[in-house]
Amino acid sequence: MAVLRERLQQLLEPVVEALGYELVLLEFSPSTKSGLLRLYIDSPGGITIEDCERVSREVAGQLDVEDPISSGYRLEVSSPGLDRPLVKPSHYERFVGEQARVQLLAPRDGRRRFVGWIRIAGTDAVQLETQDGLVELPYAEIDRARLVPEYDRE
Fold this sequence. Notes:
154 residues, alpha+beta, five-stranded antiparallel beta sheet, three-stranded mixed beta sheet, 3 helices, 8 strands, 27% helix, globular
């Protein structure tokens, strides 16, 4: 499964970037009937439905030509939303000062989930200021992370 995800990333990221967008995250959930391939895209000006349609058309064309997925699937293209995923070190760096929810691959001191303010985003780890103090989490240990949206922000 990881090999297919990596192949899809290598195949589709250049297509998305050539259109002027960032491929924030690629998720593939296979199924016996109909799997789901979901792409989260972003750009400095934000994402509109027209942007998603444009990327969907180009990606679908590339997938038809290369045919990397042998089973049936649906393609979804979406904006990352207010609770956007944090995948790359540059994502953490961009959102220093924002609150994030981070889940580790394995427990650390009996905990897998941390919520805190992103204070420092280094090349190998992120530092979160949690209720319990400052914690450094290496990117290699992070399973998934998302921003915690502030709905009352203007």
